[in-house]
Amino acid sequence: MSNFTESFTYSIGKKLIMGLTGLFLVTFLIAHLSGNLTMFSGAMTFATSAHFMGTNPLIRVAEIGLLCHCQRKE
User: Fold this and answer.
1) pLDDT value at position 16?
2) At what angle do helices 57-71 and 46-55 cross, to 10 degrees?
3) Average pLDDT estimate for 56-68
4) Nearest CA-CA partner of 69 in 26, 21, 25
5) How large is the greatest C-alpha to C-alpha distance in the chain, in angstroms?
6) How far, in whole angstroms, is CA 3 from its chain's centroid?
């Protein structure tokens, strides 16, 4: 096992992974909150908000990060 992959078995490595996935979660929630708030203000319809969430590459990366975190078994 390399030093890089071995470092994730220690407490600090696990905390780093948890922090990064938490950052993905917060970013994901802020994106959804901003989409909902713009719909309430009338600046955007539901269809355009859904299209943005479905086609934005940053949202896709956040979803994959959250999926990887949820499927990890300890």
Assistant:
1) 85
2) 70
3) 77
4) 21
5) 54
6) 27
Quote the tokens at residue 11: 């407490």
pLDDT of 74 reads 53
Q: Can you point out the beta strands (E) in 6-73?
A: none
Residue with tokens 């030093």: 3
CB 1 within 8 A of CB 36: no
User: Which residues touch 33 (CB under 8 Å, ≥6 apart)?
Assistant: none
Residues 6+ apart with CB under 8 A from 64: none
Q: What digits encode the pLDDT tens for the residues 4-43?
A: 667 667 788 888 888 888 888 888 788 778 877 877 777 7
DSSP letter for 9, please: G
